Amino acid sequence: MCGECGYRTAWKPDLSKHMRTHTGEKPFKCDQCDYSAAEKSSLDFHLTKHTGEKPYMCGECGYRGARKSHLSRHMRTHTGEKPFKCDQCEYSAAQKCDLEKHVTKHTGEKPYMCGECGYRTCQKSTLSRHIRIHTGEKPYKCDQCGYSAVRKSQLDSHLATHTGKKPFMCGECGYRTTQKSTLSEHMRTHTGEKPYKCDQCDYSAAYKSSLDFHLTKHTGNKPYNCGECGYRTRHKSDLLKHTRTHTGKKPYKCDQCDYAAAQKFNFDRHLTKHTGEKPYMCGECGFRTACKSDLSRHMRTHTGENLHMCCECGYRTARKSDLSRHMRTHTGEKPYKCDQCDYTAAEIHFG
């Protein structure tokens, strides 16, 4: 048993590995760069980045992987096989980690705890990602530029900006993307599927991030705080975007003109002016748009749905940005500050 958080296991080596989530120890060192890892399997996988070796290939589509286990998981995208079965309900999964996450819904167990803030989770990988909020670590490095990322999926998406490769395509509208998970999310714009269910009310969402945000309405937790103006939010990403209203930073640069943006969705929208691409299509009326968020808003003209609700007065709106502005009528918050006098405002108007 772990003395820090109570995690229990039948295997001493598993406990030793678990303890590194508390100590931060990374005993496995790469002899070709400064990378180090808490587990040998992570180092073995990292080494393939130096050799470029991907010996495992899919006979269906040519996908290549550095690990046999990666190929096995990939093959299930073709076969639809879900070998991991829950013994308490009819749920089954293609990946063991998905089953382990599901099982905690029955047990309520969250054995992995952050020593900094007390955050608990049912998955070791989720804790590892969470800890990077405190350390600022970005272990996934691009070997073609100076980009680094907190998550491997972010690096994979970035690498496509160098290769231009988008192997995953929607059979409904021709939309292409660099990631299978992004395609799966996109397909929900056609099917209307909302697989993420709130266990405290009847809310359901197409995206896990939407459910996570919704759950904070039940808990009221807003752990991320702006040091400039006291603004608080439920999401780190929202705080990062908010701080740019103070710094004026615009990290998203267009490589075809001098446009720069503070937020990625504005940048993505701008790029379509160069490409003319409108990958998001409404299955009801054929409306096409360059932005996924625009399609989501458009779909509400068919459904009449107003997702975002004020917990103070019951005001509802189809747009999150409208709700954020509305909330300032309750809080009195004025986050926009004049750099030449002490004037502050609740909104910015461009004229």
TrEMBL record:
SMART domains: ZnF_C2H2
Record carries keyword Transmembrane: no
UniProt GO BP: regulation of transcription by RNA polymerase II
InterPro entries noted in UniProt: Znf_C2H2_sf (IPR036236), Znf_C2H2_type (IPR013087)
Domain C2H2-type positions: 1-27, 28-55, 56-83, 84-111, 112-139, 140-167, 168-195, 196-223, 224-251, 252-279, 280-307, 308-335
Any one Gene Ontology molecular-function term assigned to this protein's record: zinc ion binding
PANTHER family per the UniProt record, alphabetical: TRANSCRIPTIONAL REPRESSOR PROTEIN YY, ZINC FINGER PROTEIN 143
Name this protein carries in UniProt: Zinc finger protein 525-like
Native organism: Branchiostoma floridae (Florida lancelet)
